[in-house]
């Protein structure tokens, strides 16, 4: 799907400097952001504010997909009412239908009793975070550096497996 972040900024100076601006959103994760500027030497400082708002403001496209506070409260009640040994299985089902903020992921991790379940939860939630740059907040709940390394290893392995399943080459060099 395509998302035009310039929508709603008709009165800003941004359209005067952009030849092309598109987000490519595939598999519900932001994959590519392409932008071609014209008159780069004339780009005023006010456009920097607009870009920042487009990419990280409270109305950010992906952030609007996150579960609402009310729905998250219901999810937490459901998790807490579930047998602790079954919480990760329930979470695996829930993440298929919802996106989360990293602060919400942190709360989920705190409800899990064992290190193994926290690692599983972090891996499950990573791909469903709307603010992946704040994933480090969730990593702070890991019990030790080895757990953090395990989380990153599993996320990397999962990404590689998904890439292979989609048919990506993995080798990004240009063909000879």
Please provide a written account of the structure.
- It comes from Dunaliella tertiolecta (Green alga).
- The protein is mainly alpha-helical.
- The chain folds into two domains: 57 residues, no CATH class; 98 residues.
- 48% of the residues lie in helices and 11% in strands.
- It contains eight helices and three strands.
- It has a three-stranded antiparallel beta sheet.
- A hairpin with a 2-residue loop joins β2 and β3.
- α6 runs parallel beside α8.
- The protein is globular.
- The N terminus is likely disordered.
Distance between the termini: 31 Å
| Largest sheet geometry | 3 strands, antiparallel
* Number of contiguous helices: 8
Mean pLDDT: 73
SSE order: EHEEHHHHHHH
Question: What's the alpha carbon Rg, rounded to whole Å?
Answer: 19 Å
- The counted number of beta strands is 3
Ranges with pLDDT <50 over ≥5 residues? Answer: 1-14
Global geometry: globular
Q: Please, how many domains? A: 2
With strands numbered from the N-terminus, the spatial order across the biggest sheet is 1-2-3
Structural class: mainly alpha
Percent of residues in β-strands: 5-15%
Keywords: Membrane, Transmembrane, Transmembrane helix
Domain DUF4476: 67-141
Transmembrane segments: 17-37
InterPro entries: DUF4476
């Amino acid at each position: 799907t395509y998302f035009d972040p310039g929508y709603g900024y008709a009165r800003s100076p941004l359209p005067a400097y952009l030849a092309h601006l598109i987000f490519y959103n595939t598999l519900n994760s932001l994959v590519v952001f392409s932008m071609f500027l014209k008159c780069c030497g004339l780009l005023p400082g006010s456009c920097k504010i607009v870009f920042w708002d487009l990419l990280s403001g409270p109305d950010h496209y992906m952030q609007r997909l996150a579960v609402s506070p009310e729905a998250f409260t219901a999810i937490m009640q459901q998790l807490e009412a579930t047998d602790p040994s079954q919480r990760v299985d329930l979470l695996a089902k829930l993440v298929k239908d919802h996106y989360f903020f990293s602060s919400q992921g942190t709360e989920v991790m705190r409800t899990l009793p064992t290190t193994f379940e926290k690692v599983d939860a972090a891996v499950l939630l990573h791909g469903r975070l709307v603010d992946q740059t704040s994933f480090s907040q969730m990593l702070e709940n890991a019990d030790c550096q080895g757990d953090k390394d395990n989380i990153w290893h599993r996320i990397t392995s999962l990404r590689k497996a998904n890439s292979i399943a989609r048919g990506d080459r993995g080798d990004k060099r240009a063909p000879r």
